[in-house]
Write the structure tokens for this entry.
Amino acid sequence: GSPAGRAVGEGSPGGTGRRVFSPAGEFREFSRRQLRDMERLFRQYDAGKDGFIDLMELKLMMEKLGAPQTHLGLKNMIKEVDEDLDSKLSFREFLLIFRKAAAGELQEDSGLHALARLSEIDVSTEGVKGAKNFFEAKAQAINEASRFEEEIKAEQEEKKKQAEELKQRKAAFKELQSTFTQ
């Protein structure tokens, strides 16, 4: 129990080497706006604010959406997208629901289908389902990527403009200030 012996195992708190999850990077089929809407919805129902939607929170969510589920139904909903098998939904697993909905992979009568449909988040990605063949889908994916870059550029331009306006206001204020201090 010497302090030196105790410090050996410390040093890397939680260093599991997991990649940081980037919704925009992984879920490229959704626009930044759709991802923000999904995140807002997720946070709204993450009552424990622990970054997960557990069984009880999902139960409440489905009741509020007007599609209450049985205990077994809720468990099955989680099981369908619970990749790490912790019996709760991380934000990433929550996004998988909408990915599956957009791809038409959810059963019509499933709880997840109801969740995706009733959440009022429009997941109709620009017709990836409608792509007649692989090359068309590939071309579409490239378009998605460039649209995404354009959205980022537009956001950056807006920030730049705001920064410039702020700088001009500060300069004008300094000028005004100097006329009083002379």
Observations:
- Strands lie at 52-53, 89-90.
- The chain has eight helices and two strands.
- Residues 2-16, 126-132 have pLDDT under 50 and may be disordered.
